[in-house]
Amino acid sequence: MIQIIPAIDMIEGKCVRLTQGDYGKKVIYNENPLEVALEFQDSGLTRLHLVDLDGAKAKKVINWKVLEKIASQTSLHIDFGGGVQSEEDIRIVFESGAKQITGGSVAVKQPDLFKSWLDSYGGEKIILGADAKNEKVAVSGWEEGTELWVYDFVEEYVDKGIKYTISTDVAKDGLLQGPSFDLYKNLQDKCPDLNIIASGGISGLADVEKLEEMKIYGVIIGKAIYENRISLIDLQRFIA
Fold this sequence. Notes:
The chain is an alpha/beta fold. The protein contains eleven helices and 13 strands.
């Protein structure tokens, strides 16, 4: 059964959503992310994708106190991303209660450091962030493009021990127009043993059902929940 992973994106400690990664298109959904996390937990969901958008921009972890609060007051399995780019960052994040970290920019810009984390913490704790714009890797909160083909980038890290990847098609994110099914199918074909977590563009339950039919490992859902396109009750059917 597909893993349902609700998302909380943070700016200045508040729960927000952006559209296509544009910090100028910010909507605040809740001043208190812990309240949102508790709602997820109360509905039976067990996981949380927590993103530090301030950290992604600053290139260092900023909102770790929110992580600490949610981790200490819920039992959610939290994967944390955004700004994890140094040994100090990863130490803070794990000590604050995250079960996994997602590294994207660091995997592109400091591959030796990222590989050392894989060696130290293992492929169960380190998730590769592989966000794509026109099938090329985008980093730093999607403010920077690269010339790296996302499929080659992911395959290279699978060879180094990565077991999980979160991949967002930037062109789809926040638009509620459906995810990039082709991106995930291509990743599956290239890396059949990889646990792929789809992110961005989820517009309704039909998208989740299609991803499950494709045997995608997990799906991150944000705006569709916050704008009532998908209810937390609807998602209970996917909880084992």
